[in-house]
Amino acid sequence: MTQRITRRAALAGALATPLLLPRTGWAQAALPPVITLIVGATPGGTTDTLAREVSEPLREKLGRNVVVENRAGAGGNVAATAVTRAAPDGGTLLIAYTSHTLNTVLMRSVPYRPLEDFSPVALLAQLTASVLVVGPSVQERDLAAFVAAARARPDRYSFAIGGVGSSLQMQTVLFRSALGLSGPEVPFRGTSPALVDVVAGHVDAMFAPMDVAAPLMREGKVRPIAVTSDRRVPAHPEVPPMRDAVPEARNAAAWFGVLGPAGMAPPVVAALNAAIIEAMRLPRIAERVALGGGESPPLSPEAFREFLVRDLALWRDTARIGRITPE
Question: What is the pLDDT of residues 186-224, one digit of tens each?
């Protein structure tokens, strides 16, 4: 009798074993054979490059073919809309960036709801540090002197905007508002042409992506006087945080993340989240993110959703402060 019970228990345990497997294992089995990462930007940019770097380790970790497809247009709206219409099986994912939430305060009509129409999967990277650079037209040598001069004469400095509707524009709004500055804002179609005019002395200052400004910083063509992160950036430890001199200024950080269509099964989301977090820990990817002034906190899907909620609130506050109206 005892032996029979033992055998029954052993059989029951064997049958129950699959139920004890990690949920990520189930989800990997449920994923379709091809996973498409849709990028709402042109090839060669930061978003596209990050998507392609992540796609390779995802192929290995998930055992699926991972392809990158560029669908640029309307500030990322074309790609986002395509993902909302895809099957929620994990086969179609959006490589989203800051415009996903920012568009809702800059555009009168956005063809998607940034939270309700998507399943947050994982944060790829948050660029916690952009850099405030000045050109030869600015005589002040450091952040404290620059801020003192700006407070003494609020219309003194002009600021280049490296892309209207970007997180850089919003960072400029937050900084100028904190100091009560009234000098001109000069819009450009992108960061590179804006930096050209700063280097030439036609515009005094601008907030720029760390990796884009770094070559000009090394050549001495622009001077970095502050980073927007709360602490110094390891790649440029000589540059102080903006809050050292302007503690009331907020940071408008850009970000990159992965979203799927609404209604994805939690085990599928969990498997993708785990694979993406492992990929972002690879030294070559982590180093690229760090050099750009960023970091990749390993957020769960739930924490990433909360991140997006806070991001939406930040852009709404910034638009109100800067009196930015949707177009």
Answer: 999 888 999 999 999 999 999 999 888 999 999 999 999
Pairwise CA distance, residues 294 & 286, whole Å: 9
Token digits of residue 242: 């903006």
Q: What percent of the chain has pLDDT over 90?
A: 72
pTM for the predicted model, two decimal places: 0.82
CA–CA gap between residue 283 and residue 318 (Å, rounded): 35
Tokens representing 325?
Answer: 């109206």
Written as six digits, the tokens of 178 are 């904190």
Quick check: 251 and 167 in contact, CB under 8 A? no
- Alpha-carbon gap, residue 265 to 257, rounded angstroms: 18
Give me the residue label for tokens 């294992």: 25
Q: How far apart are CA 104 and CA 283, in angstroms?
A: 35
User: Edge-to-edge, what's the strand order for the sheet holding 34-39?
Assistant: 65-70, 34-39, 92-97, 254-261, 118-127
Contact by Cβ (8 Å): 99, 73: no
